[in-house]
Amino acid sequence: MTADPDIAIAGRPRDVQANGLRHRVLEYPAEGRATARAEVVMLPGITSPAATTDFLARPIAARGFRVWSPDIRGRGDSEVPPAGGYAMTDYAADVAGLVQALGLPAPIVIGHSMGARIAAAHAVLHGGADHPLLVLVDPPVSGPGRAPYPTSRDSFLAQLHEAKAGTTVEAVRRFYPKWPERELRLRLQVLPSCDETAVLESYEGFHTEDFFDHWRRVTPPAVLIRGADSPVVPPGAAAELAAANPAVPVVAVPAAGHMVPWDNFEGFIAELLPRLEAAAP
């Protein structure tokens, strides 16, 4: 990645071996505390390396939590697996391996988009019932027999190819018109690190793997936070999610699409922080 000298990432990079791969993880120590209130693992989306979560990790660390944000395999500075390996079971096993390698006792897990699907799969396949909090932010509900993911494969490829060829902030803004300038510039910087096979196979998984298979088995304490204007979790899907797992609340952040905290940071933080505080008083 080519660093933008005007964008400082507060997370401290660490390389961790887990599930047969080397993973780059950003660590945000708990501010003002010798011991963190709780450990938080933050899982980003399909084309979002760990650095893109910096603006979220900072305010969480400022509340006394230690935050860990990994580059998902095939993105950022994490390794690319030698032959595919981008199923939800692969991603969930990575998280389990990272949690074990870092020695994190029952961390809070927050996932956005594909990261939310990974978080749910990890909770169901590896986490067990004993978890302090699971936060799923606008997970793709597409899958077999369901409406396709609303962003096309060609759109993902166009963004990726433009970034690798060299593009501008204004060109990125046409895909994300609500984003702050810093986050647009950061995406411009880190998107070229995403492996094309990782993106394409993960995108295919949005249509071949059913999020509801894991969602039905998610147990409290948990919450699903969607953007009120999100085409990824539209109102009909939100109602289906609530019916399929009534034990877990489904809440909406106003004036936000799929990129919920980027679109409405204050609205998202207002939903998130009280739940973090309750999970680790």
From TrEMBL:
Q: Where is the AB hydrolase-1 domain?
A: 41-264
**Entries under Pfam families matching the protein:** Abhydrolase_1
* Listed GO MF terms: hydrolase activity
Listed A to Z, the keywords are: Hydrolase
Protein name as annotated: Alpha/beta fold hydrolase
Q: Which organism is it from?
A: Marinibaculum pumilum
